[in-house]
Amino acid sequence: MTADVAPPDASTLPAATPAPTGGRVLLAAPRGYCAGVDRAVETVEKALEVYGAPVYVRKQIVHNKYVVETLESRGAVFVDETEEVPEGATVIFSAHGVAPVVHDEARQRSLKTIDATCPLVTKVHNEARRFAAADFDILLIGHEGHEEVVGTSGEAPEHIHLVDGPEGVDDVVVRDPERVVWLSQTTLSVDETLETVRRLKQRFPLLQDPPSDDICYATQNRQVAIKDVAARSDVVIVVGSRNSSNSVRLVEVSLEYGAKAAYLVDYASECRDEWLAGVSTVGVTSGASVPEILVRDVLAWLAERGFGEVEEVRSAQESLLFALPAELRRDIKAAQTAATGASIS
């Protein structure tokens, strides 16, 4: 079984492909937006309303191509580094979080900052600072170079050691095996993280666990849902961007739990007829930064090819909501008060 993360080049396809046979769709639930993503996207939208364009955003606000392009069309300007933001302008920090040095850089440039870091990522940052203050070695399980890992590592660079999956366990060196704790990136594979922790505890029997699970509820819920769907599907289509860690994990989990093939697409236009040849059941889900409109487009594409019967497979209910950043809420209230006063006068 192999994961076809990118759709094949159309020029390499055979001249004729077998016609899809038609069948049913198992639609995973929960899927799509989590509370942290919803908060981050709304933060940019509200900032544009309150401050007007342009509003600068450091890095992609969330890892989804459609979301970024839509916000760009409304006046958001995405930059890679703080130094690209004009002095005195407004900059929003993405949902993945930033290191303390980034806040320092923003102050030096007199930037107005709005921190859209997911509260669940902030929790991991707080844990890193606390364990570093207690002089623990912190084994951070995550993917090297991911923005969330970069931000968390920046909280305690002298204490944090990155462990990039089970294969990275043997390379870990700590000062004191009796003062070691593990933390994790919030968007990892639950199964792979548990295996990494198991191997770490074989090496460091006194390894401490974080106070609470670091992998976010939405990542876990989407993986649980796709496990059930994949076990009953021939093929799984995951809607999500290639730089979205949690979306890529959904492809991997789909293959591990029974799907013969799994594909990652940003848009329905990337789907291919040949994926459906000889297929009776297609599983569909989406990453935590994917708006539902993109899933509906994939369902419409499938319906046009005879896969119009859709059964939602729900594994959990989600009701969590996060408040907008405090600095933005304050400015929204001030703008509303000013508008009310102007209308009265």
TrEMBL record:
**Pfam name, any one:** LYTB
- Cofactor info, note text: Binds 1 [4Fe-4S] cluster per subunit.
Family, according to the entry, reads as follows: Belongs to the IspH family.
User: In what pathway does it function?
Assistant: Isoprenoid biosynthesis; dimethylallyl diphosphate biosynthesis; dimethylallyl diphosphate from (2E)-4-hydroxy-3-methylbutenyl diphosphate: step 1/1; Isoprenoid biosynthesis; isopentenyl diphosphate biosynthesis via DXP pathway; isopentenyl diphosphate from 1-deoxy-D-xylulose 5-phosphate: step 6/6
Describe its function. Answer: Catalyzes the conversion of 1-hydroxy-2-methyl-2-(E)-butenyl 4-diphosphate (HMBPP) into a mixture of isopentenyl diphosphate (IPP) and dimethylallyl diphosphate (DMAPP). Acts in the terminal step of the DOXP/MEP pathway for isoprenoid precursor biosynthesis.
CDD domains documented for this protein = lytB_ispH (cd13944)
Q: Which UniProt keywords apply?
A: 4Fe-4S, Iron, Iron-sulfur, Isoprene biosynthesis, Metal-binding, Oxidoreductase
Keyword ATP-binding in annotation: no
Species name = Motilibacter deserti
Annotated binding of [4Fe-4S] cluster, by residue: C34, C118, C216
Entry keyword annotation includes Repressor = no
Q: What is this enzyme's EC?
A: 1.17.7.4
Sequence segments annotated as region (Disordered): 1-21
GO molecular function term, any single one: 4-hydroxy-3-methylbut-2-enyl diphosphate reductase activity
Cross-referenced NCBIfam families: ispH_lytB, PRK01045.1-3, PRK01045.1-4
Binding locations of (2E)-4-hydroxy-3-methylbut-2-enyl diphosphate = H63, H96, H146, T186, S244, S245, N246, S289
Chain residues that bind dimethylallyl diphosphate: H63, H96, H146, S244, S245, N246, S289
InterPro entries (UniProt xref): LytB/IspH (IPR003451)
UniProt-annotated binding residues for isopentenyl diphosphate: H63, H96, H146, S244, S245, N246, S289
This protein's name: 4-hydroxy-3-methylbut-2-enyl diphosphate reductase
Query: Catalytic residues per the record?
Result: E148
> What cofactor is needed?
[4Fe-4S] cluster
- List the gene name: ispH
